[in-house]
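Protocol step 4 of 5: obtain the predicted structure for the target chain.
Materials: sequence only (see below). No template structures provided, no constraints applied. The aim of this step is simply to have a reference model before the mutagenesis design in step 5. Sequence pasted as it appears in the construct record:
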Amino acid sequence: MPKILTIINASDINYAMKPEASTLKVFVYGTLKPGEANYSHYCNGYVESQTIAYTKGILYALPIGYPAMVEGNNKVRGILLTCKNSDILASLDRLEGYQPQRKSGLNEYYRLLVSVYSLEDQLIDLAWAYFMTPEKIREYKGILVESNWWTSF
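Step 4 output (structure tokens):
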């Protein structure tokens, strides 16, 4: 499997291990993007800033109406959300069917800390992102999104 994140220093480890920090960065590529179905319910009131960006992965559209990303090396475009309160992470975990103590295959999605880049290929920051296992993609009959940008409209 490709390497998703290189931890650079001790502060990166602290960030990765403490999602309860005062601000939180999340990379979103599907229904949590501004204008998509889940943004207003889960993100309104939490987001301080949003930046168009990409992370590495492979993006699929699921016939059930939302996307999923697996680990890979494509430039999956989405939005880097900076949230003013880390409490949002628990509600996002519930939405994504993720429980940290379960094995990744038992979760709908699993969460990883990833490097996020500007469209000009400059490292912006580290952020949490949700991934699906390749087995679940096959189970849901995922369709590769060759443009690396998912939208419901």
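Step 4 remarks: Strands lie at 24-28, 47-62, 66-83, 110-117, 123-131, 143-144. Helices lie at 10-17, 39-42, 88-95, 134-139.
Proceed to step 5.
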